Amino acid sequence: MKNPVVIVGAGPSGLAVAGCLIRRxxxxxxxxxxxxxxSRWHEHYERLHLHTARIFxxxxxxxxxxxxxxxxxxxxxxxxxxxxxxxxGVRARPAVSVETLRRTPDGWDVVCAGEVFxxxxxxxxxxxxxxxxxPAFPHxxxxxxxxVH
Length: 149
Description:
Elements: E1 3-8, H1 12-23, E2 29-31, H2 39-43, H3 54-57, H4 74-88, E3 92-93, E4 98-104, E5 107-112, E6 115-124
Helix pairs in contact: 1-4
């Protein structure tokens, strides 16, 4: 088996898992479909801040500086994710889209365009905030104003 673990997604969760595995002597393969780690955080609206306190939002092995605000602004958090990848030794492979996960007798094949990664384990850390869920409310069609998600 060539790879012990393949991690799909290089956002906060993927980086955290990768950093922990690296600290334990493993070399995970981190695949990211965007062009950089934490890409979604570079795309969110400007005034966004973390809704959890800084001390609870740091990645394992790379604490946020104490002089940062309690609720870290989006842009600073996006930069922090890039710094975290360097500090933790995570070498994500950007612009790699996973097409299929296939179970094999020895683990998994992670199929990408033109490449297959074999691994004992796969962590899917793709997040969920890329697909909005706009709930339906009773009588919303009678509201008469735009409903913004």
